[in-house]
Amino acid sequence: MKDRASHVSRETPRGWKSEIDATLYDIARFFSKVAVGKDHECWEWRGRTRKRGYGEMSHKGVPTAAHRFSLSLVVGPLEDPSIVVRHKCDNPRCVNPNHLETGTHQENMADRQIRDRTARGEQNGRAKVTPDIVRKIRADTRSAVEIAPEYGLTDTAVRYIKRRVTWAHISDNDPDPHQ
Questions:
Q1: Phi, psi dihedrals of residue 83, rounded to the nearest 5°
Q2: Per-residue pLDDT band at 109 (split at 50, 70, 90)
Q3: CA–CA separation, 172 vs 147, rounded Å?
Q4: Each residue of 9-60: pLDDT tens digit?
Q5: CA 173 to CA 13: how far, in whole Å?
Q6: Residue boundaries of the structural domains of the chain
Q7: At what angle do helices 155-162 and 131-139 cross, to 10 degrees?
Q8: Which of 9, 51, 110, 164 is the most exposed place for a label (fewest CB within 10 A)?
């Protein structure tokens, strides 16, 4: 007789394997790395984390997202590879199944947008300009090819700024709050 539900193995969109076939030992090892609190509180993962702060554990020698493992203990194996586990609490270390729900990638991205968790503008670590520079570029009447070298940008980046494809959240009239 098998210990639990059928064995599930698949590639998740980011290339991580998710394998859920938990034994009592797996469950005990999982909870040894969780700071369990009240039902309404975040249960913080105390084990290793991925680059963006999400908990990660090794399950049967395969890197597995801790929050995904946690929810699978409650709802069973998540067999559809398009299913993502979303955090209602916006805390990547949280593994409290009461704070987790399944959904699609599109729903997860919509959550991020609604909760203003998208790194945009200067919050994006790869940003090369500031809101003040964006306003100067938009006010400049020269061509994008002429403006771009002055700011170390491509002419396409300058055109996108001028057309509000990028940096659309910056108004031309609002002063820079950092000044």
A1: -75, 130
A2: confident
A3: 18
A4: 333 334 334 445 678 888 899 999 999 999 899 999 999 999 888 999 988 7
A5: 41
A6: 8-114, 121-162
A7: 90
A8: 51
- The token pair that represents 118 in the structure block: 């998208």
User: Are 144 and 137 a contacting pair, CB within 8 Å?
Assistant: no
pTM assigned to the model: 0.57
Q: Which of 95, 106, 8 is nearest to 60 (CA)?
A: 8
DSSP letter string, 13-54: TTS-EEEE---HHHHHHHHTTEE---TTS--EE-S-B-TTS-
For 99, phi and psi rounded to 5 degrees? -100, 0
* Contact (CB, 8 A) for 129 and 151: yes
| Cα 116 from Cα 119, distance rounded (Å) | 8
Per-residue burial over 58-71, b = 16 or more CB atoms within 10 Å of its CB, e = otherwise: ebeeeebbbbbbbb
Tokens of 64: 């597995």
The first and second tokens of residue 113, run together, are 């947008």
CATH number listed for the domain at residues 8-114: 3.90.75
d(CA 122, CA 106): 25
User: Residue 55 carries which DSSP code?
Assistant: B
